[in-house]
Structures are given as C-alpha cells and as structure tokens.
Design brief:
The complex is a heterodimer of chains A (480) and B (100).
Chain A (H helix, E strand, L loop, with lengths): L13 H19 L6 H20 L5 E3 L4 E3 L1 H27 L5 H19 L3 H19 L6 H32 L4 H10 L4 H18 L7 H8 L2 H26 L4 H24 L4 H22 L2 H27 L16 H4 L1 H15 L5 H15 L3 H27 L13 H19 L2 H8 L5
Chain B lengths: L3 H21 L3 H26 L3 H31 L13
Classes of the chains: A mainly alpha (480), B mainly alpha (100).
Chain lengths: 480, 100
C-alpha cells in the first residue's frame, strides 16, 4: 500500500509562518523584558510584520498552491496579506504609546495581535472551507481577548463578552453551513465544490448550507441585519484595538467571502447575488442613517464601517474581474483611511483621558492644526471626496456595478455617500468653527502616533492622486 | 434501520435547540453551553456525512473542530470570569453600559 507524502510547501505559507514565529518570540521576550522596555516588543512585532510583507511580496505572481489544495499563494491572497500586514503595523505604532498611557502595556497585547494577523492571513489565502474556518477562529479568539484587554474597565469587558458570545454564535452558523455543503457536494475544497456544482444541480440542503455560510460571513464583516454587535464592541474595546478590528478583520473576511462565493459557488450566483444585493442596500442605508445619530466618534466610525462593508459588498454582487480588483483597492484605501481617522482621534486624546464625543473636538484646529488637518483629510476620504483614496475606491466599485448591469445598486451607493458627508463633516465643523474647549493646553502628540498618522495620510493622498500602480497590483490579483 | 437522514435530522434539531438557547437564555455560561451544542451538532453532521459519503475527511474535521472549541472555552471562560470579578453579576441583560 503506497503511503502518500503530504504536500507540504512551507514557502507559500511563509507570511503566516513568519508572523506566528514573531508572536512566539515576542511571547518569550516578554518574560525577560523589564517593564519600562516593553515598547521594544512592539518594535519587534513591527519588524516581523515587515519581514512577512517582504515574504508575501517575494511570492507575488507565484500562483502556487500547497497542502493538497488547502492553501494558495495567489496575488489576491497576497494583496490582502500586504493590506493586513500594513494595518497591523500601523495599529502597533498607534498602540505603543496608547497602551502605555492606559497602563496595559503587556507583551501579550502584541502576541494576541500577531496571532490574529496570522489567522487573517490564513483566512485570506485558504482555498478550503475548513481552513477558512480555522483562520476565522484564529483571527477571532485573540480579538475577543484584545477587546476585553482593559480588565479594570467594565466597558471593555462588556465589549469582550458581547464580541465573544456573538462571534462564537456566528462561527457555529458558519460551521454548520460547511457541514451541509460537505454533505451536499462531498468536499470542502472550493475548486472541487465548483466542479461538483457544475455537473449536478443544487439541493435544498446545499442552499441552506450556502445561506448559513453567508450568515457567518455577514456577522464577521458586520452586514445588516447581523451588525448589532459592532457599535457596542467598537465603542467598548480599547481604541487601538477598534482601529485594528475595523480594518483588518474586514480585509480577511471579505477575502474569504469573495473567494467562497465568486470562485466556489458561481453555479448558485442567481440566488446569492440577489440576497447580497439586498444586504448591500440594507447595510449601506442603515449604517449611514445610524451614523447620523451618533454623538460619539467611536460609535460613528463603527456605523461608518458598517456602511463601508455595504459598499464593498456591491463589488461582490458585480461578480466580475473589475469587481474583484475594485474591492481589493477599496479595502486598501479603507484600511489606511480608517486607521488615519482613528490615529487622529488617539492623537487628540489627553493621556489616558480620551476625547470621544464629537463636541470635545471643538477648537482642535487652533491647538493642533496638523492633527486636525489629518483627521479632516481622512474623514473626507471616507466620505468619498476627490482627490483622496476613498473617492477612487468608490468610483471603481460603482463603475464595476454599472458595467455588470447593477446600475440601480450603484445609484443607491452614491445616494448613501451623499448622506454620509453630513456626519463625516460634523467633527470637521467642530474642529474649525467652534471656540476651543478648555483642557487643550499641554497635550503633546506622541511621536509614534504622529509617524503612523503621517504614513496613513500620505497613503490616502497617494492612493487618491496616483491610484494607477495600486489598481494595477489589485487587478493582477485575480483568483485563478 | 437508521439512515443518514436520521442523523442529519437529529443534528438539525440539536443545532436549533442550541440556537434557541443562545437567543432566550440570559446567563453567559448557559448561552456558551448552547453554542457548544451548536458546534457539536455540526460535528455530528460531519461524522454522519463522512460515513454516508465514504469520505474520511469529515471525521478529521471533527478533531479540528473539537480543538477549536476547546480553545474557545478557554478564552470564553476567562472573559466571563473577569466580568464576574469586576461586577459580581453576569446576567447579560444587566451588562448594558454600551448602547446608542
């Protein structure tokens, strides 16, 4: 009897491996690092992420698959890997001064963040539903802890417990969906599912399974009506964790979402495209309308992240090559923009005392003109103003929708963008038009936060003014 | 004669019981046990399909899922214990500082 040698190809999972090794090194390093040198663990984590990004770049165009078709290193997954690594590195830059000010600077913070990044990379490059599930759990479990990381603060604990219960609940739906798809097609491999569905018609069991998969993804990327955990969790979690969650989880989960539906289930496209279109309309509209009513910046950005998930879902409904590349570009643009916005909010906080109410921003432009300018640029980009990254992203997504005959969806998207301008400009008006509130004097922006903010704002402007190279990279990222 | 249909029906019933448990119970520990019930319903479905399809993959997935569930227990209980220490009350209806 022949013994099959497992198809082990460590090179194609190099980025995830490097991140995992870095996490272990940081975990061990935390034991021997004295309390006042904990920030070096943060620098070490960033170094690991940079190496992982280089590894991902060296695999560009390799299009290799390994582990018996479980994982693939295609440009789609690598583009997402780079986006995730960038978002994690910027989040850590913001975190180093933040967790010091809040007296939670423990090495475990970086370990958990890196573990979550490894899960995201696995999820974005997986081509088997079970591996997607494992990536999803590896991504989620550290984030539950990070959300509850301010153990003394009951708000943070509440965010952790809510995120945990609802996240585990949604994982169970996702898992049951996998089980039903496995039963209906006899495989969990995305390519084999596509091949099996091309030959035989679907069954009711398959439809239920696909529906449950969609529920699982919808929970993770926060689509209406599966979004209700988002505002509470984003509000209660430490601000840097919120910043990281709001961008990186979306990149990873949308990657798997696109791969599963566009690549494995085109045979059922007639059904799921209609459902996704309805979800996109609900998500955009409810996200933007609810954001109008918020007085807290973190909650406003939480609802805005829901709305942005709706825009990205339009690209899935379009189900074309342009839709895919526009979603990749949008995720990158959204990552740098949203991290810039959160970075500015963190920069304006006074040590451990954060300014999170919109009215607290009154007069910030007079005291901190550069931070106010950065926040303005990021909020304008989120609203979709040219010449910033958000405009190009929206333009590409709506263009892809119109091309494939979903013009009405693009129209609803544009109308929603118009609504969103109102609440994105409210903090800007406060900063520039109101008299300064007291308590601004003596606040100094930490150099690392300033650096992260600078990188984010330069990326927002660069992606908006010279989008061609990034679009070309994203367009090279088509699923084989 | 038991067929695969019986097993899938049982697993579907268990899954629904778990989902209903999460939605109507208010103690995080009980909600968490209901979630475990849902995961195990999926395990049962995997094993049944694996036998029916003569495909051992399904049985291997169960091992992976059990591992994940164990990790989830560790994290979940830790958060619930931290919550209990902070407020000596874990009823989810009373954990409601965050709203809007």
């Amino acid at each position: 009897m022949p013994i099959l040698v497992p198809d082990i190809n460590l090179r194609i999972i190099a980025p995830a491996l490097i991140v995992t090794v870095t996490a272990i090194v940081v975990l061990l390093g935390e034991l021997v690092t004295p309390a006042e040198r904990k920030r070096w663990l943060g620098y070490l984590s960033i170094a690991g992420l940079v190496v992982a990004a280089f590894a991902a770049f060296s695999l560009w165009g390799a299009n290799a698959s390994g582990f018996s078709g479980m994982v693939v290193a295609d440009n789609f997954g690598l583009f997402l890997t780079l986006t995730i690594a960038l978002s994690a590195a910027l989040s850590i830059l913001l975190s180093i001064p933040f967790i010091h000010a809040h007296e939670i600077d423990q090495g475990e913070y970086y370990v958990l963040l890196l573990a979550s990044v490894a899960g995201m990379i696995v999820m974005a490059t997986a081509t088997d539903l079970i591996v997607i599930f494992l990536g999803l759990e590896l991504l989620s479990l550290p984030l539950y802890i990070l959300a509850a990381f301010q153990r003394e603060d009951t708000r943070s604990l509440e965010a952790g417990i809510k995120y945990f219960l609802l996240g585990a609940f949604s994982s169970a739906f996702f898992l049951y969906g996998i089980a039903l798809v496995f039963g209906a097609t006899g495989t969990t491999n995305l390519a084999k599912i596509a091949a099996s569905l091309a030959q035989s018609a679907g069954s009711p069991m398959l439809s239920i399974g696909v529906g449950l998969l969609m529920v699982g993804f919808a929970f993770k990327v926060a689509l209406v009506p599966f979004h209700w955990w988002t505002p509470d969790v984003y509000d209660g979690a430490p601000t840097t964790v919120t910043a990281f969650m709001s961008v990186a989880v979306k990149a990873a989960a949308f990657g798997a979402f696109f791969r599963t539906f566009q690549f494995a289930l085109p045979a059922l496209a007639l059904d799921w495209r209609a459902v996704a279109a309805v979800l996109a309309v609900l998500t955009m509209t409810l996200g933007n309308v609810a954001a109008l009513l918020q007085s807290n910046v973190k909650r406003m950005l939480a609802y805005s992240s829901i709305a942005h998930a709706g825009y990205i879902l339009i690209a899935l409904v379009a189900m074309s090559a342009n839709g895919l590349s526009s979603a990749l570009f949008y995720l990158l643009a959204y990552t740098v923009t949203n991290l810039g916005a959160f970075g500015a909010v963190i920069a304006l906080s006074d040590g451990a005392r954060e300014r999170l109410e919109i009215k607290d921003f009154a007069g910030a432009a007079r005291e901190h003109p550069l931070v106010a300018l950065a926040l303005t640029i990021c909020l304008l980009s989120l609203a979709g103003f040219p010449p910033f990254a958000g405009f190009v992203g929206k333009f590409l997504i709506f263009g892809a929708a119109v091309e494939t005959g979903w013009a009405w969806l693009a129209v609803i998207g544009v109308l929603n963008s118009l609504v969103s301008v109102y609440f994105y400009l409210r903090p800007v008006v406060q900063m520039y038009m109101s008299e300064p509130a007291e308590g601004w004097s003596g606040i100094r922006v930490a150099p690392l936060v300033a650096l992260a903010l600078l990188i984010a704002v330069i990326s927002v402007i660069a992606l908006g003014v010279f989008p061609a190279p990034a679009i070309a990279l994203a367009a090279g990222g088509l699923i084989r | 004669m038991l067929t695969v249909n019986h097993f899938i029906l049982l697993s579907a019933i268990l899954f629904c019981l778990g989902a209903v448990g999460v939605l109507i119970r208010r103690n995080p520990l009980v909600m968490f046990m209901s979630i475990e019930l849902m995961l195990n319903a999926a395990n049962l479905a995997f094993v049944a399909f694996s036998r029916y399809l003569n495909n051992l993959d399904g049985q291997i997935f169960v091992f992976l899922i059990l591992t994940v569930a164990a990790a989830e227990v560790a994290v979940g209980l830790a958060i619930i214990v931290a919550m209990f220490r902070a407020r000596e009350n874990v009823d989810v209806d009373e954990v409601n500082e965050l709203k809007g």
